[in-house]
Design goal:
71 strands, single chain, five-stranded mixed sheet, alpha+beta, 1018 residues
């Protein structure tokens, strides 16, 4: 059974909730619990938590939320977790047991073995070592008192006070009750430090622990009005010094309270080991489901959000739900709703897809309108409340009907004057008019009609208008209609006019209309945002101006200055004043507050093809037809946050390297090694060395109500001429910061549009290079003349150098041309001359047929040799063969052909993979001729039977070796003076910076080696 509890109202003496107590049945506690509407959001290790067991939650004065898990500590700004190490050299790592933040923004972390570490600006210092507490027990509770001292309570009963750097242990001599049990500590709203130990509760006063009441408490927490809440065995008490102890008899079966907290509304929250989280207020007890039933820690932030630390379930945030989703469908848990309204009796009505069923709800579930209610007509499309009572129901095929008190009182169809039996738009006004958008299946009777005093008046729509999609009346009583083809029509004094031209240049899909008391007509477009037509002047707001969605399906004002809109991306609100300021040119953007997945809602998309699709209820709640049900907004639960958000510059990086950080002492080692500037000090001044030009600023606003829509604007004063609208982005990048003095400023806006105009700022100086300094600018003109003269001389030298290089290139070209001419003359020319001589020899009658045949054979042989020479020349000139691989292939082919003709065996030893680097034409040509010279020497003089041709790579050279098994010879000391072509081969190799080496002995054959560099100066 759940149980009532005491609440303090406005600081007065507690009052027993007897009404709640009497209302509780004797058994079946679950049935007595009323489930409140809360948004519960969970963060776990996959979102950045070091561990899913959260042992401590604290908020520091700068707004950051600090979350301690068993294995690590993180700083949270509502969007991102920043890890901070809690390790000190020489102290065992160990698990974290508790966390507390003091008023100086220092963090105190208790670890196992009794160790207490203080984090100041991220830098960790050991304050209490393992020698102060019994081993393996560890800290279990920490609290800061009104004097700024930090208290640590240990599992063996030991209590330490840390004040002004001094640690003092308190014992029974200081008033602590005897016994080894844990001493629990709590601070109440008046600043009084309370304790419970053994069977006593009391206060710490006059440097002594003073027991006051003999009770046995298993959990305590401070009360805001003074005193403590405490519990034992599922019983709760409220105790204040000098007042009677109030006991609340109640039972909480199989639930052991572990954490208590009284929120700012005076409600008590109880976290348990086995049963999760409970909340108690004057309306009665309620249970709230969180990610894990084992609760370890609780903390309420300055915005009123409640944070829950669980054992294994991560971090939970609880806040009241502003938007809820009702599911009226019976066939599907998320039935699409076409139309919605609330009648004068407060009954909610809805038409659902796909069967057009009409449902109603009076707060106790949904029931369909059926034959027993006097309703037999199928396929309804829209429903509108009649101010005189009852509802109007538009159908797909059967016209329009009025239902009231179980009876259809009025029916209109085509036979009774209705322009068409297809009705999907209705508007019932307080003056008794019913505006009807009608049509027929042939689409030739799409009209707007008005029923007044029992009579129908028809307004024929312009050709091609389409069906009426939305209806509204303005402050002047004019009726406005929007059609499916984007026409905007107005009826004034029984005259219909087309006002589309007063809005957009071309008709655009209009999904909804809404009139305001100030004379504005709000127009929701399908893809073109939100329009406003006021006093003949049209303006528009879109997503690039801060609107959450450009597809607007329904619009409702809440009467408190907010315009609520539903569209493709769910439900959001905008202040009417901001829209007015935008329309009048006083602002450049608006601020939208969206409600979706982070508010416990999903599958939110508004319906828009029947009217009305939204309604404002008699109690101020707003109802929207959605494709997943009916969304209800309770603006009365919306608590405006008048506090401007805190702003922090978290980090500055230059050329990708962190040079300044907020809490720099706690950065990971790779960053801390660079000793970044500490930004938490208000006097920080960042200096950028020359060459450091790409600067990135990372900032944040530690806000936990709608953190994803916090807006920022920034400027680098001295470079930016005006504020830059950063939207929701939390960084600013400057690709090139010139030398000079600057001040970076950033401001933030919370979800209610409240700006922190002071924001955060950082001064920085970009140091110049020597050529960017003032003295250089003074001396530069004086040196300019000298530099100009030097530049002219340098230019002349470069010009002369280029001329020399061109001459060298021409000389190399001339040498190559001369070589080609020499080859053509020496080789081809001699062969051609021989052919001419053989051809011109005239027979004198004495040559016989055999001599003529011999001449022809010689001509044939000479022609073959000439063809081979031409092929070699072409091969040497072709740049496609300027590679070592091509050269090796050609050498192998020529060696095989030449030696085969002489009946000498040719063996080749060539690498399979040769580099693809270039080998110039002169090198290929000279080496090939030298190689052929070596082969010819073998054929003519060596008397060899076998020749081995080898190619090897060595560094930047290659070696071509020709080795035979012939008779050999004695190599002369001076090769240039003897025959065998040795001098010729050496000259050819020298021409390409190579070397020719010949080794031979009589009877041992000959070895000719060509050593050729791959790159030469030629």
């Amino acid at each position: 059974m759940l149980f009532p509890v005491i609440a303090f109202i406005h600081g007065r003496i507690p009052v027993l909730w007897l009404a709640g107590l009497l209302a509780l049945p004797a058994t079946g506690g679950a049935s007595a619990a009323v489930e409140p509407t809360w948004v519960i959001r969970t963060w776990q290790s996959d979102a950045g938590l070091p561990d899913n067991t959260v042992v401590g939650i604290e908020q520091t004065p700068d707004g950051f939320l600090w979350v301690a898990t068993r294995t690590g500590l993180v700083r949270f700004d509502g969007v991102r977790f920043q890890p901070f190490p809690v390790t000190v050299p020489g102290v065992p790592a160990g698990e974290i047991k508790a966390l507390v933040a003091d008023r100086r923004a220092r963090l105190w972390v208790a670890k196992d073995r009794g160790v207490v570490i203080c984090l100041d600006q991220g830098r960790a210092t050991t304050v209490v070592g393992p020698e102060h507490a019994a081993a393996d027990i560890g800290a279990s509770l920490m609290v800061e008192d009104a004097a700024g001292a930090v208290w640590v309570s240990y599992g063996n009963g030991e209590v330490l006070r840390i004040q002004d750097g001094r640690v003092r242990a308190f014992t029974t001599a200081d008033g602590l009750p005897e016994g080894a049990g844990m001493c629990r500590l709590a601070l109440d709203g008046t600043g009084q430090l309370w304790f419970s130990k053994g069977s006593w509760v009391g206060v710490f006063r006059g440097d002594k622990f003073r027991p006051l009441e003999q009770v046995d408490a298993t959990a305590i927490t401070g009360a805001r009005s003074g005193g403590i809440w405490w519990c034992r065995d599922a019983q709760f008490w409220k105790y204040c010094e000098g007042r009677p102890l109030l006991k609340i008899p109640a039972n909480l079966p199989v639930a052991t309270p572990t954490a208590l907290h009284e929120d700012r509304a005076g409600c008590l929250w109880v976290g348990t080991v086995e049963a999760g989280l409970f909340r108690f207020d004057p309306a009665g007890p309620a249970t709230t489901t969180v990610s894990q039933p084992a609760i370890v820690a609780m903390k309420e932030d300055r915005e009123g959000n409640l944070w829950i630390g669980t054992r294994g379930g991560g971090l939970n945030q609880l806040k009241p739900k502003i938007v809820d989703l009702l599911t009226p469908g019976s066939a599907s848990p998320f039935s699409p709703v076409r139309s919605v309204c609330q009648d004068t009796d407060g009954v909610l009505w809805a038409v659902v897809w796909p069967n057009g069923e009409v449902l109603r709800s009076a707060g106790q579930g949904w029931t369909p309108l059926s034959a027993k209610d006097g309703w037999l007509i199928p396929f309804s499309q829209c429903v509108a409340a009649d101010p005189q009572g009852g509802i109007w129901i538009g159908t797909q095929y059967a016209g329009l009907h009025r239902w009231r008190n179980g009876v259809v009182t009025d029916s209109l169809n085509k036979t009774s004057g209705l322009a068409g039996d297809h009705v999907e738009a209705l508007l019932a006004t307080a003056s008794g008019e019913v505006w009807i958008g009608t049509g027929w299946s042939d689409k030739e009777h799409e009209d707007l009609q008005c029923r007044k005093a029992g009579q129908l008046q028809t307004f024929h729509l312009p050709p091609g208008s389409g069906l009426v999609r939305a209806l509204a009346t303005d402050s002047a009583g004019d009726c406005w209609a929007a059609t499916s083809q984007g026409l905007l029509l107005r009826v004034r004094d029984d005259v219909l006019t087309n006002e589309t031209g007063s809005t957009l240049a071309e008709p655009c899909e209009i999904r909804c209309l809404s009139g305001s008391p100030d004379g504005s007509l709000w127009i929701g477009y399908g893809g073109q945002g939100l329009g406003r037509l006021k006093a003949g002047r049209f303006s528009r707001c879109r997503m690039d101006q801060g609107l959450h969605d450009d597809y607007i399906s329904n619009i409702l004002p809440d009467g408190h200055g907010l315009l609520w809109l539903a569209g493709n991306r769910g439900i959001f609100s905008v202040r009417e004043k901001e829209l007015d300021d935008l329309a009048e040119g006083r602002a450049t953007r608006v601020w939208s507050v969206a409600y979706g997945r982070n508010d416990g809602l999903s599958r939110l998309q508004a319906s828009y093809d029947a009217w009305p699709g939204a309604a404002r209820g008699t109690d101020g709640r707003l109802w929207f037809a959605m494709q997943s049900g009916v969304a209800v907004v309770n603006p009365g639960d919306l608590k405006e946050n008048p506090e401007s958000p805190p702003v922090v510059i978290e980090r500055v990086s230059v050329n990708g390297k962190t040079v300044a950080a907020y809490g720099a002492g706690g950065l990971p080692k790779p960053l801390a090694a660079s000793a970044p500037l500490e930004l938490s000090q208000g006097t920080a001044h960042l200096r950028l060395s020359p060459g450091q030009r790409r600067v990135e600023f990372f900032f944040t606003a530690p806000v936990f109500t709608k953190p994803e829509i916090i807006g920022f604007k920034y400027r680098l004063f001295g470079l930016d001429t005006d504020w830059v609208d950063g939207g929701v982005l939390r960084s600013a990048t400057y690709a090139q910061v010139p030398p000079g003095h600057y001040r970076f400023q950033v401001r933030a806006c919370n979800s209610d549009g409240v700006w922190n105009e002071t924001g955060a700022a950082l001064d920085l100086t970009a140091e110049p290079h020597w050529w960017e300094t003032a003295w250089f600018r003074v001396l530069a003109p004086l040196a300019a003349a000298g530099l100009l003269g030097g530049g002219i001389l340098l230019g002349l030298r470069r010009r002369h150098r280029r001329q020399i290089e061109r001459l060298k290139l021409l000389q190399a070209t001339d040498r190559e041309r001369a070589r080609i001419a020499r080859d053509l003359h020496d080789d081809l020319g001699s062969h051609l001359t021989r052919i001419v001589m053989l051809s011109d020899a005239e027979p004198d009658g004495r040559e016989d047929a055999q001599e003529v045949g011999g001449a022809l054979d010689e001509i044939n042989q000479t022609g073959r040799e000439m063809t081979l020479k031409m092929s070699e020349i072409v091969w040497a000139l072709n740049p496609e063969h300027d590679t070592l691989d091509s050269f090796a292939g050609y050498v192998a082919k020529r060696a095989h052909e030449l030696l085969a003709a002489a009946k000498i065996q040719c063996r080749l030893d060539l690498p399979l993979d040769l580099p693809a680097g270039p080998l110039s034409s002169p090198v290929r040509h000279e080496v090939l001729l030298a190689f052929k010279e070596a082969l010819h020497n073998i054929v003519k003089h060596a008397r060899a039977t076998s020749v081995l041709v080898t190619l090897r790579l060595e560094g930047e050279s290659f070696m071509l070796t020709v080795e035979d098994d012939g008779q050999g010879f004695v190599v002369p000391p001076d090769a240039s003076s003897r025959g065998h072509g040795l001098a010729n081969m050496q000259h050819r190799l020298a021409a390409v910076d190579g070397r020719c080496e010949v080794r031979s002995q009589p009877g041992d054959g000959t070895c000719v080696r060509f050593d050729v560099p791959l790159a030469t100066r030629h």
